[in-house]
Each structure stands twice: as structure tokens, then as C-alpha cells.
Amino acid sequence: MIVLLSVRPGTLESTMTEDLSPAERYAAARRRAAEQATALAGFREMYDFGLDPFQIEACQALEAGKGVLVAAPTGSGKTIVGEFAVHLALQQGRKCFYTTPIKALSNQKYADLCRRYGSGKVGLLTGDNSLNSEAPVVVMTTEVLRNMLYAGSQTLLGLGYVVMDEVHYLSDRFRGAVWEEVIIHLPESVTLVSLSATVSNAEEFGDWLDTVRGDTEVIVSEHRPVPLFQHVLAGRRMYDLFEEGESRRRAVNPDLTRMARMEASRPSFQDRRRGRAMREADRERERRQRSRIWTPSRPEVIERLDAEGLLPAITFIFSRAACEAAVQQCLYAGLRLNDEEARERVRALVEERTAAIPAEDLHVLGYYEWLEGLERGIAAHHAGMLPTFKEVVEELFVQGLVKAVFATETLALGINMPARSVVLEKLVKWNGEQHADITPGEYTQLTGRAGRRGIDVEGHAVVLWQRGMNPEHLAGLAGTRTYPLRSSFRPSYNMAVNLVDQFGRHRSRELLETSFAQFQADRSVVGISRQVQRNEEGLEGYKASMTCHLGDFTEYARLRRELKDRETELSRQGAAQRRAEAAVALEKLKPGDVIHVPTGKFAGLALVLDPGLPAGRSNGHRGLEYHDGPRPLVLTAERQVKRLAAIDFPVPVEPLERMRIPKSFNPRSPQSRRDLASALRTKAGHISAERHRKQRSQAADDREIARLRAALRAHPCHGCGDREDHARWAERYHRLMRDTRHLEHRIEGRTNTIARTFDRIVALLTELDYLRGDEVTEHGKRLARLYGELDLLASECLREGVWEGLGPAELAACVSALVYEARVSDDATAPKLPSGKAKAALGEMVRIWGRLDALEEDFRINQTEGVGQREPDLGFAWAAYMWASGKGLDEVLREVEMPAGDFVRWCKQVIDVLGQISAAAPVEGSLVAKNARKAVDGLLRGVVAYSSVG
Q1: For residues 389 and 947, what is the distance between their CA atoms, to the nearest angstrom?
Q2: In 3-state terms, what secondary structure has residue 245?
Q3: Strand partners, 238
Q4: How big is the CA angle at 13 (ends 55 and 48), to the nearest 5 degrees?
């Protein structure tokens, strides 16, 4: 039926209706008329291609007044559903907010919607730009919408639809909480459109949306509009990853499996160095194999793809420096992918887009090398590039004027930049802590760029052969299409004061318990709860089986268990005491002592060569020291030199005799050992070891044991003929009860976790006088305006006047410590800091952080759980100070050794927080707000100011 509805009149449908009865033709005509009257019909007329079934289903649900969650592969056209929400809002005279996770995506969507509806109807709101913010359609980053909700912005009036593009960002451990905050706090009257990559638990996420937002339709599409083919490039040959076959389960190409096996069996360079002979046939086979298998160079890969007609291509390299190096390697290799006409078009577009950049900055930014690569159709794309440069690369790539892009994985996160082919150099990347294999979800996200809808018949994912590659592992990555959506939601200080201010503590707690994080935690205990129920049923059965007609067997079993526990405890104490006595005796041994080893493999007569004392107890003797107790080195009567352990001495040992150890004794010499062992037997062979008398058991004199034994004998059940049978059932009952309590403890630990964290945050804020019950103090209202990882530290700095008396550039330096985080921690060198007041203020900020850190520890607020204040990073303070002081770009970048893109990004984040501080700082008796605005003006110049729309 969907196919029929999507076919226009006068084609297939008119032919098919001839075969229908009059009643069926009438019904079909009624359906067509009803469809033509819908908003969807008019919307479909705006596109020159038919909509897919999942798009139609989602749009129909939206028009019916339902919220929708659309989970579909990258490039499948999910955004059509978001654009239909825009269409509905305009048709109904309501507003629509279109949110994206990153500014680049917001800029891109803003441009798309302006082309369709005109710039008068579309606005843009990002951290540093506000264009036509009261328009009926506003594109914004998700954080901007979150801040508007907390501030109760008037812009929210008349809001009918919110589109959350790339909603799977909710899993992001740094920013994911923002998505949940928006979903929870949006007014009930707002219809939510959630667009996600394909995730394996879309139904679970949909169930949660249904709970917090009302009726939500979940539409999942696994279908890729452009089929994706997987390859491995080894040497000169491109292998298909999967073997062609009729079965649904695709088998790995046997050529790849054979190649991996042959490479694994090939002798290594070390083997050959050790002189292992290789038969001539083996050498010949290795030469043939090596001539076919190698990892192609980057220029070779691009040339091969060009020859196969697989350009344009994106090559993902998990390193910024390697992306730039790849471009240089292609240039040195003489690669030219553009003809003269294309070169001229590239130069014209680049000159137009970079006209605002001062000529003196172009050289610093590597403009001419970058332009040469673009003219040849080759470019890099990564976060370290100037935003303007990145946008030019994206535009040229979409126009087909750049055909080979070397990019980091950040390009895969939503930017509309599809290619015919995607190349992965390696399947391992640095995750900030270690080199780790990429996940199936990351593989799907990266390769999802391959295949341009409406342009390519098929897309291609190419993985370069690497030594040690496992084709089965690669097939597992390629065959696993989805990954689970996991909440990263955690309460923050700013969130706590905003919630309490709007809803009070009790209602805020209830709201947080509706988060997706708590929803998932509660679902995870369902299985445990069922196990507890089964255990409780088992306990009832065990209880019936151990019932005794003579009395309460539960009480009798408890007495038996207490007696057993007491005897075990005394036995353990006795064993520990004997071990301690043995250790003390071993520590008294000296070289030359003759002892009798009581047990073990080397039991018998022995001579102490080295006492092997624990660290710090050398006892005047030189030798090795051990941290796990004395480890004496001895010579046995059988001529063996062995290092013994505490386990060989279950009882204390006493020297039987003393012997002199010759200075010439060499424990490695068989003759030395034989001579000394002979002397040992002569000296002490006639001495018999004194038998260690067994000590009286502590249990014999223990009053508690005597009391329990008497109580057992006096109990009525003691005389039961089935006593031991009952006891076995009682032991099973006890074990199952213990397991059940453990499960209940696990359930308790997982439920209400978010609310408990919120309670601890509220307690700390109450301690600092940000909250008084349900009242938010003046300090709390200031904190409510500060968003960011170090929100509480910023608020405390304002409260204590740390930034009073600082100039604009000095304030910029201090605020940079609240946002900057070094990509790689480097504790070896202290960062360069501005002198004078700024340095003192930065020191005071670190002191305040130390106080807050100690307070967080007292209130059990744990940074490893994503809650709390990290230490401020002073690494960008000098760069922010210089730039805000008016220094040139060349001088600043040379001083701080930072890529231009990183510099611009951190400057923009500092500007964002300075804007918050200017709004939160006291107006009377303080110059902080005024200087914050001046600092913004000082930073927002040059490359920072002209880096794009948003």
C-alpha cells in the first residue's frame, strides 16, 4: 500500500486500478483524495524524488500528533522527517527548533533551510552567534536550547516542534546529559522528533520517550539506500571481504583467510637472525607472497581508487599530524586529481571564502600549501584546522572539486560530506588512554559515509591490509551494524540549582528519576528481581523440607551454624598465631645456622646461607630482602641450594648448630655444594630434630563454644532421628538466603542512583549556602547562570572576588583555565603564565579548587562517575592573555605551539564563558562584568572573528 501511495497518478497505479471492482476503485479514489488533503502530500511535492517507506511512516505519525524516534543508517535521509516537522510548524503558525550537537552542523542546516524557506523565516543560535532568533524556525546547538529552558526564555512561547538531530549523542560522556535535560524539561505541548543512527536498543529508548514525552512512534530502518561493499586492499590487489554466495550469512573471502594464515606462518626477521635455516622452497614461496602482500602507501591507495573509479574518497586516519603528512606525501608523489578548469574553479572559490583573512595571517596558517593541495584535489580535514579552511574543504568536496580527503574520525559525526568510498588505514585508534580496537559502532559510523544517494549506485569501504590483520575480526566489525545507546546522564551543580529553583527539591528528585539513565538502571535490575523471586520460592520449599515435629529447626540450625563459625574463627586465629611465631623464628636466623626444615619438598637438615629477611629488617646482614615475609636461602644435606618460603615452616624453627661458611663458597659450583653439604652432615647429621609439641586447642577452653554445645544438646530437635537430613535442607536454605540478600543489595545499589547523587550535590550546595531547603540563595542564582564543567569553581571565584582588579586580558587568561583541557596531559613542564595579578588569581583559583575537591570527597561526590570539579588546566592562559592583549597571530601560535583550529576553538569557548560571567557577575561595586565584555571584544578579532557563521 505504501508503494501505491508513493506512485504519482497516471503511471502504474492507473494500470492497476483497471483490474479493480467499482467499489475498490471508489475506495482507492477516496484514499487518494484523503492523502492529497494532508500536509504530507504538499510536502512531498517540494522534493523531486519519492520518499522511502520509513520516511512516510514517520511523517504520517508526526501529522497524527505523535512524537517520533527515527533510527536509520547514515545517509538514509532521516533529516527529511525533521524537515517535515519544520513544514508542519510553518503551516500551523507555530515555532520549530532544530537542534544539532555541533556548530558546524547547525551552520549547515541553517543554510539548507534558508535555501528552502528564505532567511526571513529561519534563525540561528549558537554559542557565539544570534541571527534572527525570533524567527518561526530556529536552528541551534542542543546546549543553547537547554539554557533557554532553564532561563524560561520568552523565545519558547509558541514552540510546537523540536527536532533533535543525532540524538545518539546522548551517549557522549562529556555532553550527553544535555540531550536528556532537554527531553525531560520540554513542555508537554511540544512534539519531539528524535533522529538517531541505527542503535540496537531503539525500542528501549522509544519506551523511555513514551514514558516521559507521551505517545511516541519508533521507526527503525536497517536499509541502506546505497548498498555498501567491503574490501581489503593488499599490495596491488583489492580483495572483497565477503565471498559471493546465496546464503544470508556471508562467509569471509577464503583468499584473505589464506593470506593471513600464510603471513602468520612466515618466519620473522628475528627467527632468521637466529640462524634458523629456511629451505629454498620456503624462501621462494615467501618471495612470491611478499610480492603480493604489503600495505600500500597513501599515494598508491589514491591512485588505485582513481584507476578503479572509486573517487571521491575519505581516508580516515586517527591522527591530525598524519592527515597533514598524508597530503604532503601525495603532493610529493606528484598526484593531480583535477584538470586545469577544476583548478581555476577551486582557486576562485578559495579566494572568495578567505578574502577577509589578513594577508599577514595567511602564511602563518599554511594557506599556500593548503591551496596547492586543494588545486590538485587533495585535502586534510580535522579539528586542528581553521574552521574557515574546514568549511572550504567540505564545500569543494561536495562539489566534486576535492576528490581525496584525509580526515580524523570527527568528520564522521554528522557533517553532510558523503563520498563514493571510505578508506580505513587501521582498525586501532588512541582513545585518550590507550590504543584500542575500534568498536562495531565506530566502524559503522565511519563507513556510513560511503555511497552518495542519487549519485552512486554503490558505496565502498576499503580497509588497508596490516601485518597481523584478522579477516574474521574485520568481518565481525562489518557485519555488526548497530551499537547500544547508553545514557551518560549525571546531575551537575548548575542543573541542581536550576531544578530546585523551578520545581523544589522533592519534584526535582522525581524528575531526575525519569531520566534515561535511571530508566536503564531500573531495567537492568528486572532480571535480578526475577531471580530474587525464584529464590524466595525455593526458600519456601527448603523451609518446608527442614520442618521438625520436635521443635523449631530454624533455631537449631542457627545454633549449629554459630558453633561452626566460632570453631572456624578460633582455628583461623590459631593458624595465624602459628604463622606469626614461625615468621618471628625465621627472622632470627643468621647465615651459618643449621636448621631442620619441618615440611615440604626440601624437608630435613639444611644450612642457612642467607636469611632472606623482609624489606627494612636486614638485622645487620647483607642479602636480598623480601616483602612477603622471610625467604631463607639454604643448602640441604642433599647438596641443593634453594630459596624457601613461609609455607615450608608451619611451626617455629630453632637453630640446631652453627657452622662457618667458607668465603670461597660458590652456590653455583657443584664441588662447593658437595663439600659444604658433606661438612653439614658430619657436623649435625647425628642431631635429631626436636618434635614440635602440638598446642592445646583454643576451642577446648572457649566459653562461647561450651555454651553453644550445651544449647544444642538441650534443644528438642537434637533428639530427632531425621536431624541430619533436616540439617542438610537447613544448610541449603542458609546458602540460598545469603545469595538472595546479595542480589537484593545489588538491586538497592542500582535503583535511585541518580537521585542519591542529586541528594549529595544538594547537601554540598546547602553547606556552601547556595541552597536553603527549596530556596535558591543569591549565590545559587549566580551559579544558575554558569554552565560548564567547572560551574561551581567559577561561581566561587565570583563570590570570593578573585577576579576583581584584573584587566580584560588577565581575566581572559583566568577564565581559560575553566574551559581548557590539554589533549595529552604533560606534567613534566609547568605552563607559561602571565605575571602579576593574573598569576596570583590563577593560583587562588587552584587553591579554591583544592578546597572544593576536599569538600566533594567529604560528600562522596566522585569525579570518576562524571560528577564534580576537575582541576583547572592553566595550559591556555598565556595564549588567551597574549591574544586578548592584541598580539599578532604569528607571535601567539609560535609561543604556544598550537594548531590554528585548536586556538580558535578554545578562544571561542573562553568567549562563551566570559559571556556567562558578564551576565552572572554582580553589577554594583564590581568591574568583572564590564571587563568580561571587554575581554570578549579583545578575543573576538582576526581569525577568531572571521571563522564562519557559527
Answers
A1: 9
A2: coil
A3: 233
A4: 45
Asked if 560 contacts 571 with a C-beta cutoff of 8 angstroms, the reply is no
* Eight-class DSSP state of 450: B
Question: What is the rounded distance in angstroms from the CA atom of residue 533 to the CA atom of residue 536?
Answer: 5
Look up residue 840 and give its amino acid: A
pLDDT, position 18: 54
Question: Which neighbouring-strand residues pair with 932?
Answer: none
Q: How many C-beta neighbours within 10 Å does residue 513 have?
A: 18
Q: How many CB atoms lie within 10 A of CB 91?
A: 12
283 burial type by CB count under 10 A (0-12 exposed, 13-18 middle, 19+ buried): exposed
Eight-state DSSP code of residue 557: H
CA distance 496 to 73: 36
**Strand bridging mode 428-430 / 435-437:** antiparallel
68 within 8 A of 62, measured Cβ to Cβ = yes
Q: Where are the alpha helices (DSSP H) in 157-253?
A: 177-185, 202-213
pLDDT lower than 70: segments of the chain = 1-20, 26-37, 127-129, 244-249, 263-292, 410-416, 430-435, 480-483, 526, 614-629, 689-701, 750-752, 823-829, 863-866, 947-950
Beta strand extents in 586-625 (DSSP E only): 593-597, 604-610
Quick count: other Cβ atoms within 10 Å of Cβ 935? 29
pTM, rounded to two decimals: 0.70
Q: Answer yes or no: are the C-beta atoms of 754 and 491 closer than 8 Å.
A: yes
Question: What order of strands is seen across the sheet that includes strand 159-164?
Answer: 129-131, 122-126, 137-141, 95-100, 159-164, 191-196, 67-71, 216-220
pLDDT (0 to 100) of residue 697: 64
Q: Report, in angstroms and rounded to the nearest whole number, the Rg of the chain calculated over CA atoms.
A: 37
CA distance 400 to 382: 19
CA dist 112 → 41, 108, 162, 381, 739 (Å):
21, 6, 17, 22, 59
Query: What pLDDT, on a 0 to 100 scale, did the predictor assign at position 620?
Result: 42
3-state helix, strand, coil split of the chain in percent (to 5) is 50, 10, 35
Ramachandran region, residue 172 (left: φ > 0; alpha: ψ -120 to 50; beta: rest): beta
pLDDT of residue 265: 64
Q: Is 619 left (phi over 0), alpha (psi -120 to 50) or beta?
A: left
Query: Rounded distance, CA 125 to CA 100, Å?
Result: 11
Residue 139: per-residue pLDDT: 92
Are 726 and 720 in contact by the 8 Å Cβ rule? The answer is yes
Helix ranges (DSSP H) in 192-279: 202-213, 254-265, 269-273
Q: CA nearest 178: which of 124, 105, 101, 103?
A: 101
Are 537 and 733 in contact by the 8 Å Cβ rule? The answer is: no
Q: Which of 201, 127, 140 is nearest to 170 (CA)?
A: 201
Q: Is the peptide bond before 312 cis (omega within 30 degrees of 0)?
A: yes
Please say whether the beta carbons of 360 and 416 come within 8 A.
no
In contact, 462 and 290? CB cutoff 8 Å: no
Main-chain phi, psi angles of 387, to 5 degrees: -50, -40
Alpha helices in 293-419 (DSSP H): 298-307, 320-332, 340-353, 359-364, 367-375, 387-398
Cβ contact 921:913 at 8 Å: no
What pLDDT, on the 0 to 100 scale, is given for residue 226?
A: 82
**CA dist list (Å): 754 to 512, 524, 762:** 7, 15, 12
The upper half-sphere exposure of residue 13, i.e. CA atoms within 13 Å in the direction of its Cβ, equals 16
Rounded CA-CA distance 172/174 in Å is 6
Report which secondary-structure segment, H or E, holds 563.
helix 553-587
Residues pairing with 229 in the sheet: 460
DSSP string for residues in 53-119: HHHHHHHHHHHTT-EEEEE--TTS-THHHHHHHHHHHHHHT-EEEEEESSHHHHHHHHHHHHHHH-T
